[in-house]
# Entry
Amino acid sequence: MKKTFTLLVTLLLSVAMYAYPKQSTITVSTTGNNTIMVVINGAKYKANNNYVTIDNLPEGYHSIKIYQQRSGRRMNLPNSNLQLIYNNSIYIKPRYDVDIIVSRFGKVFIDEQLNTGNNNDDWNNYDNNWNYQDNNWSYSNYQAINTADFENLKQAIKREVFEDTKLSLAKQVVSTNYFSTDQIKQILQLFVFEDNKLAIAKYAYKYTIDKNNYYTLLDAFIFSSNKNELLEFIQKK
# Structure
């Protein structure tokens, strides 16, 4: 019986590896007319038809620079005709498709989505950690961002003056990492207005590794209406 269970687990993991490839993809696109050049980890990519896709990226931090061609100029990196509009290191999670969109005004927006590899509903919950305690077997995909990187992220948010800018930056930071509930609480403390705290608390829920502790975020709020709204949000998840 024990051998049968071990074989079954091995088969399940093999299927999961094929259905959910660990490699990720970044697609950089622009809504404007100016050509863009993308540099990822030192490698240069010129966009065709206003977009460029880089496949088979491993999990971890990746250096990304985006250059935009000035109107009426030829694209040739490095070149004074190019304008650097984005320069950052973002964390790419395994099996994720990351979209980086450059607006016609040069603003950069980032979104991501889990690449499930198929539509089999039986595997929709694979993104959650799976534990088989009775047989001393566990599987955990994700870890919270390390202390040094987390402190750097907090400092970046603190440097912003306006709450709206802090909110946008915080969402971008949260969407490219995993966090503990305590780390999310520390991010909430960087905001003054409770509406923004509530927005981040809701947004960060799916990127938190210890959701069973999420109720402790209620301490970050003063108004009972916001506490109740967050509690209802958690209960519905």
